[in-house]
Structure formats: structure tokens, C-alpha cells
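Holo prediction — copper (II) ion.
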Amino acid sequence: MRLVRHAGTGVLVLLLLAGGVHAAAEKKEFVAKVDPDGVQRVEVLGGSYFFTPDRVVVKVNVPVEMKVTMESGVIPHNIILKAPEAGIDVTAELGRDPQVMRFTPTKTGEFPFYCDKKLLFFESHREKGMRGTLEVRE
Ligand SMILES: [Cu+2]
């Protein structure tokens, strides 16, 4: 009886571990709220090779403060969000200190952000998954 019970616990632990790994690979969305001072604050973590959340939803014509922190590591990363048609053109080199990017989206739509670092002939970080989408809503 005892052995059977232990075997059952082992299976449960394995299932939980599998579930955790799966959750980490899922796409994450963050919908910004407008703070009392009228700013939408967003925090993004970047690393090799991801941004999380990788889908950020903000309101049009409301200032955004996007704080980008980098996971510790030796590989250099940046974040680029260029959508001049929506009044957005920000770039930051990611380092030990978090970078704060400020912009006010003036147009609704979906705009990509990504890291454009690339080593020699290898795939760019963007191609490896270091990218996300800013969705600007009404
Ligand atoms: Cu990168």
C-alpha cells in the first residue's frame, strides 16, 4: 500500500513540473491601467531570448512609461519600438539598471517591439523570440 501511495505522489509532482514549464512558454499579455497621475505604467523583463509580457495593451493618447529590466546575463540586449506614425520612436540599450521609455501613442493599432542584436551570421535575437507587440486601443 505504501509503495502505491508514493508512486501516486511521484506522478503528481511530475505533472506539476510539466505544467510549470508549459506555463513559462505561454504568451503573456499585460493590459495597462491609467494611474491617478494620468500615466500608464508598464514593466517588461527582457532576456535571452524573450520579452515578458510580450503583448502590452495601452490606451491611445495617454502617456506611457515603459520600464524595461534585463535578466542578468552577459549577452547584450536592447529594445526598439519604432512606430513614428503613432508618435512612438524609442530605443534603449538594456543594462544593469532598468530603462524607462516614455511616449504617448497617438494612433490605435499593433506595433512590434524587439531586440535587434545579432551575432555574426546567427539569427537575430528578434528571430529567436526576443520580440513582442504593443497594442494601442481606443
Ligand atoms: Cu537581445
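READOUT: Strands lie at 29-31, 40-47, 50-52, 55-59, 64-70, 77-83, 88-94, 99-103, 109-114, 131-137.
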